[in-house]
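Hi U.,

Before I forget, here's the chain from the pilot set. I'm dumping it here mostly so it's searchable later in email.
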Amino acid sequence: MLSDAPRAERFLDLTGLTPEELRAGLSDPAILGAVLDFLANHEADLVNASFALDISPEAIIAARKDLA
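Structure:
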């Protein structure tokens, strides 16, 4: 998430989180949900993240549903 500066800035602006809070909260379901919601709501970010993670966009969406 934070490796792409424009995406990271947009995410942090929308959530109000700091990079430190994001990193510290990676095991927090609420933080993970915010990340997955962010990706799911912007197709370009979803596709780029799925490519970077070497998983399908559908897997990211499924992960969000499983987390809920």
